[in-house]
Design goal:
Elements: H1 17-33, E1 39-40, H2 53-62, E2 69-71, H3 78-88, E3 92-93, E4 101-105, E5 129-133, E6 138-146, E7 154-157, H4 163-173, E8 181-185, E9 189-193, E10 198-201
Parallel strand pairs: 2-3, 2-4, 4-5, 5-8
Antiparallel strand pairs: 1-9, 6-7, 6-10, 8-9
Helix pairs in contact: 1-2
């Protein structure tokens, strides 16, 4: 009688953990401090089914055992959850209200965003960050952004954003200093909307 061993292939994380993590983290900080500015993913990285490369890199740079991640049903298969648990040691939750990072695709049902933690007056930093996977990010004049980190105004286009998303974002902006920050992650690019950013949609 033969016994067949089953092995689960784990995709690699960063090639140079400390250096690559810092490089991605700096890009994310720049994107948050300069809303609407588009940044290229500074390295190549393997990504599991359910996540694109930019989202994978962002989570590997920011998540750890004290960071709770919620994945939308379209993202939350075993490849993605196993990859994040292995490389980040982070808990994966099915309760979006407990998420430090919530991850979804732009074509998903985004009704969950109204349940994301916005923090509170004493601890506004305890809010969630939404990472939204998108096809592309450009500076076409679909939205005009104003606020801290933006000189005068800045144009941004993320195709597929719905009227409900924009209404939520407008309400979210008025919650400052509380509120949810948003990171748009295409396969190769990153842009962000800080909670401080005012958005005019055309």
């Amino acid at each position: 009688m033969s016994v067949q061993l089953q092995t689960t292939e784990v995709l690699p994380g960063f090639d140079h953990a400390a250096f690559d993590s810092n490089a991605v983290f700096r890009i994310l900080l720049d994107a948050m401090s300069r809303p609407g500015r588009i940044y290229d993913l500074p390295l190549a990285i393997a990504s599991p089914d359910g996540l694109n490369a930019t989202t994978t890199a962002a989570l590997l740079a920011m998540a750890d055992m004290d960071t709770t991640i919620w994945l939308s049903p379209s993202c939350a298969g075993k490849p993605a959850t196993s990859h994040l648990k292995f490389h980040c040691g982070c808990p994966i939750t099915t309760d979006v209200t407990q998420a430090d990072f919530a991850v979804a695709k732009i074509e998903d049902d985004l009704s969950f965003i109204t349940d994301l933690s916005v923090g509170n007056a004493e601890y506004p930093d305890q809010s969630a960050t939404l990472i939204l996977m998108v096809d592309d990010i450009t500076n076409a004049p679909s939205m005009t952004l104003k606020g801290p980190g933006i000189k005068d105004s800045h144009d941004l286009e993320v195709k597929g954003l719905t009227a409900d998303f924009h209404a939520w974002r407008a309400d979210n902006h008025h919650l400052f200093p509380c509120g949810v920050d948003v990171i748009f992650a295409s396969p190769t690019k990153i842009a962000a909307l800080s909670r401080t950013t005012k958005v005019e949609v055309f």
